[in-house]
Every structure is written in structure tokens, then in C-alpha cells.
Amino acid sequence: MAKKNNSIITKNSLEFLKNYLNNPSPTGFESEGQKLWLNYIKPYTDDYFVDTYGTAVGIINPKADYKVVIEAHADEISWFVNYITPEGFIYVKRNGGSDHQIAPSKRVNIHTAKGVVKAVFGWPAIHVRDVQKEEAPTLKNIFLDCGCKSDKEVKALGVHVGCVITYEDEFITLNDRYFVGRALDNRIGGFMIAEVARLLKENKTKLPFGLYITNSVQEEVGLRGAEMITQKIKPNIAIVTDVCHDTHTPMMNKIPNGDTTCGAGPVLTYAPAVQNNLLKLIIATAEKKKIPFQRLAASRITGTDTDAFAYSLGGVASALISLPLRYMHTTVEMVQKNDVENVIRLIYESLMNIKNNHDFNYLK
Length: 364
Known about the structure:
Blueprint: H1 11-22, H2 31-41, E1 47-50, E2 56-60, E3 67-73, E4 78-84, E5 89-95, E6 107-112, E7 115-122, E8 143-145, H3 151-156, E9 164-167, E10 172-174, E11 178-181, H4 184-202, E12 210-216, H5 224-233, E13 237-245, H6 254-257, E14 267-270, H7 276-288, E15 294-297, H8 305-310, E16 317-325, E17 333-336, H9 337-354
Parallel strand pairs: 3-12, 3-13, 13-16, 14-15
Antiparallel strand pairs: 1-2, 2-12, 4-5, 4-9, 5-8, 6-7, 6-9, 7-8, 10-11, 11-17, 14-16
Helix pairs in contact: 1-2, 1-4, 4-9, 7-9
């Protein structure tokens, strides 16, 4: 394990992160991203498989009876082509929680069997809008323009109802501190669990259990990939990583959303789906290894794949380690590099403690 004052993220792993984030992986169409992810983790695992809907799993020590999952989700929010007007404009439907308010003036890629078709979300000029009756962007009025004069021209490009649409924005580093881009929710999680696998391999760590590094699909439409994969793996423990909100930016309210911020470390959630003894192990690990962390309370659900794992198979001991993120479900999602490294460290070190603690009896 790298010392806490040294960078965990290498030049090679940063290059993978850039390629992985720049590659589109919309919900239900994650295959190209999953190929990139699997190619990266294969050298660090003993085996792998991909399920029917595309969840990818790398396995360390696959013959072990006791199974531990570390998990993230691979899919990004996007749009579907929903209606093409006779004049050649395209109206859309959400695929996941896409934000209609940020759409106007964005550049997009429409994914077709013929290849990518470029388009933009158009919007009337400020000069012609009535400030007294100005319309806000809604699903009823945002539209795409791909430079065509008719629906026939649009269809000739290969665009049809059901084609998926992703934003064109790409990964950047801001102030040598923040990673910025679309789909950090939650492909940054896929990156972090892949880095845990890399560190285990490089440190020649021998695990007494099977470790299933799991990159699930279809989280953004109801945790569907996690629901399916838990039935296949049948794990004893699941440590899930996802993102949560940085509530220190303008227009955020700490009272309902909690007090969490980029730069202060991983966020550990208290919730009914989080198994108390596993959470205690992770907190004790963080305190012993001097890894900074924050706390967050959830109500009935965490809203993450933790819920899918926890309530499957009669109950799987599950916990959630979140990464603070700014501007969720936009094209400029931001996470701080130090937090990314500390999530990797916390997952890695928690696995070391599970080596001699397979008993998560609720009454202990």
C-alpha cells in the first residue's frame, strides 16, 4: 500500500481514468466502457465474467467459499430520441436522471448504428424572448438540432426513436486539485475499485476470501444491475462506493442534505441498509490508519446499490463509502483527488481487516 503522503494514482492509472470517463457508457448501453474497464483490471485479477446485461466482475481468489464484493456502477445518465418533427428537430426522453435545465446550448453525440451523429440542444436567442413570460427549459420544450431540414434527412443519418444521446464534454483537471467531467457519477467509483485491485496485486496481498470487483450497470434507473449481480455472486459482504453531494457550494442546504464537502475525506453513511458491524469495522479502520472521513445519515434508503445488495439473498452485510462530489448530474461534476485516493485507501485497508473478521453477527 502506498504511504499516505504519496500519491496512489499513477500516471498510467490517470490515463485510464481519462479514457474511461471520456468514453460514453449510457444506461443500458455500457458495453464499450465495460470493455475498457475490464482490460484495465484483468492483469490484477485471477478471473472475470460479464453477466447478461453487462455488469462486469473481476475476481481475486475465485475458489474461496467466502465472498466479498467491492462495487461501483458503470452507467451514466443520458437521453433517448423520443420524437422527430417533420422539420427535422428532435425531442428527447430521459434515460436516468438527466437534468433538463442544463441542456440548452450543450453539444451532444447521438449514437446510431452508422456511427455518432453530432447535434446541439438549441434554444431561442435572448433577443427574442419575452422577459415577462420567459419559459424555463422543460422536457416539453428542449430539443436537438442536427442540421437537418426534415425528418427524412434525420433518419437518413441513422437517427431513429430510441437512439441514445450523450453529452460531448470531456475530462479535465482543475487547479491541479479537482477532477472534472461528466459521468464521474459513478465511473469514478469504477476507477477506485479498480485501483484497489491494482494495489492488491502490486503489494502481493493474499486474501483468505474471494474478492469480486464489481462494476454494475443500470444503477441510474433503479439499481437494476446490482439486483441482478447479487443473485449470481451470492456475496457474504458488500462494500459499495458511490458519490454524494458537496453541500458547501452555493444554493445547497445542509439541513436536509447534510454537512459534507470535497477535501474532507470519504463519507460514511448511517442507514437501515448499512450493516452496523461492517460500518464499525470501516470506521475503526479509518481511525487506525488516520484516513479522514465524514458522516452522513440516510432515511429509508441510501439511493445507491447498497440497498440492492443489503436486501438480497436474505440479507448481505453491506456498507457505503461515498465520494463527495459537486454539481451532480451535470457535465461539470467535480471531485477532489485527495478524496479519491482516501476512498481507495479506506476500501483497501478495510479489506485487510476483514481477513480476520468474517463474523458480522448483528447481536455482537
